[in-house]
Every structure is written in C-alpha cells, then in structure tokens.
Amino acid sequence: MRRLEKSGALVWVLLIGLCGLAACSDSAGSGEAGSVEVTGPVPNGERPNAFGAPVLDVNQFGYLEEEFFFEGNAIAYAPVRGADLGVDGRWSVEPSRSAPFKTRMLVLRPTSEAQFSGTVWVSWLNVTAGFEIVDVQSGYLRDGDALVYVSAQKVGLDGFPSAEANGLRAWDPVRYGSLHHPGDDFSYDIFTKAARLVGPRRGDLAVDPMGGLDVARVFASGISQSAFRLVSYVNGVQPLEKAFDAVLLVVSFGWSTRFETPPSDDADVDTSILGSTRIRDDLEIPVLLLTTETEAKSLHPVRQPDSDRFRTWEVAGAAHASAVGGIPQDTVQVFLRDGLQLPSGGGGGIQVPGNPNKVRWLPVMYSAREHLASWAQSGEDPPSFPLIDFAGDPPAIQRDEYGNARGGIRMPELEVPVATYGAGAVGGNLFGSTTPFPPDRLRDLYQSRAAYLGAYGEAVDRGVAASYFLERDADDIKAVAADDAAALFDE
User: CB 3.0–4.6 Å: which of 253, 267, 294, 333 could bond 55 by disulfide?
Assistant: First the structure.
C-alpha cells in the first residue's frame, strides 16, 4: 500500500480497520449512491451548450439532454500486497488513498417512464485527442435506453499541457471552472460513483440525474483508450464494487492501464498503459469485446475463448476509426461547433488520411449492444463468430485474392468487394485506407450496377441471418451501398 501523508494516515488507517477493503469508497459494495453530492441540471455558461453535446436533435426521439456535476471523495486502488497484475486478468486490488473530486456527467434519457427500457449505458469518455469525444449515434436512442457520459479522467477537465483550451475548465470557465480532478488513479472510483448515481439502488437523491426513472440495469461501455481503462476496471474493481450488469469493450487493443501512475504522467495517455491482458474468466457479468482488424495483431497474443460470460466479435477489413468511413459527420459538426483543435504529433494526435477505410461497421455495434442487453437480461447467449485468420511465425493476417483479411465477421464490403481495405496499425493511422479497384476489374467482377447491388444485398441478408446485423438496419445498409454504387458504376 502506498505511503500516506501524515495528516491523513491515521484517519485512513481507521477507515481500513472499520470497513475493510471493499467498503472504503463512499459506495463500495453498498449499492447506494453514498455521500456523493449531485448538482444540476447545469445551466449554460459562456457557451450555449454543454461540451460535446450532440448536434442531432434528441427531442425528436423523445429524449432529454441534461448535464450534472457530482463531487465527493474518490479512492485510488493498488495491487494487494504480493498480488501480480498478470495477463490472466485475475487481479486483486485494494483501496490505497482518497482525494476530493468534482466532475460531470452528460445524461440523455427518455422523457417518459413508458418509453424507458430500464437500461442505462454508462460510457467512459475517451480523451485520446486531448479532449472528450462524446459518441452519440441515433441508433442508440431508438430502444429507450438512457445514455450517461462520464468525465472520468483528468485530461477531460484540464486538457493536454499546451492544449488546455480543449479541457472543460478552460473551454467554458463559467460553467466548468469549479471542476477538479485529483488524477487518473482515481478515475476508476469516479466511474463507479457515476454508475451508483444512475443505478437501480441510487436511493432518494435530492438531485436525481435519471429524473425518477425506474432503472433496472446499468451497463458500462468504453471505446479505444477508454476500453483500456475498462479492462483494468473489469479485472480489478468490478469484483469488489459490482456496479455494472454487463460491459461492452469497443476497439480495444487488449491493453490494460495502471492503477498507480506518477502524478506528472496523468496527462500522458501512453504511459498509463500497463500491457496486454485478458478479461478475467471468473466474472459474474457478461463482457462483449467488439474489435476491428486494426486491433487484431495486438489482441492475438491474448486471445481467449468465448465462454458463458465472454465473447469476442472481430470485424475483418474494418479499421479502428472507420465505423462510418472516417470520423462520423455528426462528430465533425460537434468539433466545428465547439471550436476544438485536433492536436498533432504525440499525445494521441489524430491524423485523418485522404482515403480512410470505408467498411461501415457501426451496424455491428448496434447488434452487439442489443445482444449484450439480451444476454444480461434473459441469459440469451449472443452468437460466436470466427476470428480473423492468422498463420506463420510471427503470426500474420491471412488475406484473400483481393488483399482483404480472411476470417472474422464478414462484412458485405469483403464478401462483395470493390476495394482493398487497409486497417492501419498500432501507433499509426487508425483510420486505415481504401484502395478502389480499377474500372476494368469492377467490370470483370460485376456485369452491372444491378448485379453488384444484388450480390451486396444478399451479403447483408447473410449478416442478418448470422445476427451481426439487425434486421431493422438491413435496408439502411443496402441504401448506403446503392448511393456508393452510383459513383462506382457509370450507367
């Protein structure tokens, strides 16, 4: 256990003695919101909107968008003396120290109880770019689920050094100036506290972020760097806190993050990475890992079999940041509206190529969310799919005659190809690439636009039958292909 400052050591020792390892957070294991104070809905400050608020009109879906602050004392965790944070994920951690915090959550929820599904998705906001990226897709709003986006990390509040203007506090000091974060070691407990505040046993809160809705279950989700932190959360904290009913990890490279980070490194996403780690195999809740070809090589050494509590869905041909063929347009509009500047170079900078990967795997995300919800609610197992093919020493992805990956979830773009799809690489271009076939090759493969679209539609139908597409999304997937085909086939 880390040495404590004299002023707090006696109090902390007494707390350890009285409550034991699992109860030293305000809410650890109690199922209660604890002594965390909630304020809000937060009014506008210098700017007319919350940071990262969606540009789509949530009202048309019967939703309300509100922001809340929550504050209290958070704990940090450290490995139990003698415990090893090994690759098997069976970790033992314990509280090490506490510190005050004040941060925010952005809540999108149905306005009526009748529309509410009972499910709350709590998302760990990604800060790789030096600011928080709030991923709101219209498909998340069609089933009555509530969405809660949590500012769990210090970078979200303070920004990167020399790019502080992208942090909440500098972006709108009137609105966010009172927020403060003690460092990413405390992010895990902050995330737990957010889950408690919107969960089924949150108690009688003076300010209820859920507006009195009857919550039945709480799911955690994290994308990319946030998924790394969720891996550590799942392996170390979830067994203690039991705050979540299911977890969705998206485009994780199989890495985990540290519980103890030098304070000087709190803004450095890379130095927080601990290493490649599996998901522990003794969890009581289901975990679904949805990944693309970009992460496949990194994940390969820690691949684990599907089980009654774990699934891996690996999308061949797709790239880390290509859910809709590059940064989603709604997200771009958020960046423009909020005046956000993408940092270049180190520290998670984003460089978008001119020909990003165009394998649209967002519909697979929709299916993953629906299957995970059914798994957690009714015990209905989601399907298992083949993983991307590897062979050789060192292992390498196996490719077909078009240069596209074999195995994995087979997207229509690979089943009915019009291009070679590159997935990018770790530490490089996460948007991948698209290299279109020349016109003569297209003519050899497909006699006409109608022939191509017919084959593409059949591939979509196979995806529906296999359950990595939802039937309700099939027409939209086919419609996008029809739009693309107009430029591919000059008829």
Answer: 333
Element (DSSP H or E) covering residue 143: none
Contacts of 442 by beta carbon, 8 Å cutoff, 6+ apart: 418, 452, 488, 489
Strands (E), 125-166: 146-150
pLDDT in the model for residue 28: 36
What's the pLDDT score for residue 450?
95
Work out the pLDDT band at 13, boundaries 50, 70, 90.
Answer: very low
| Cα angle, residue 105 at apex, residues 119 and 322 outer, rounded to 5° | 75
Phi, psi of 132 (to 5 degrees): -80, 130
Distances in whole angstroms, Cα of residue 310 to Cα of each of 9, 82, 195, 226? 40, 28, 21, 19
- What pLDDT is attached to residue 335? 83
CB 225 within 8 A of CB 320: no
Q: What angle do CA 252, 478, 397 make, to 5 degrees?
A: 35
State the amino acid at position 407 in one-letter form. G
| 149-182 residue pLDDT tens | 999 999 999 999 888 899 999 999 999 999 999 9
- DSSP track, 261-282: --GGGTT-TGGGEEEE-PPPTT
Length reported for the chain: 491
Burial class (CB in 10 A: 0-12, 13-18, 19+), 31: middle
Nearest Cα to Cα of residue 71 among 34, 97, 43: 34
pLDDT in tens, 47-57: 999 999 999 99
Q: Which amino acid is at 408?
A: G
Is 230 within 8 Å of 166 (Cβ atoms)?
A: no
196 by DSSP, 3-state: which? helix
pLDDT tens digits, residue range 395-413? 999 999 999 999 999 999 9
- Quick one: tokens of 78? 């450290």
| Residue 437 near residue 446, CB atoms below 8 Å | no
Q: Are 404 and 417 in contact (CB under 8 A)?
A: yes
pLDDT of residue 109: 98
Query: Tokens 């299916």 map to which residue?
Result: 367
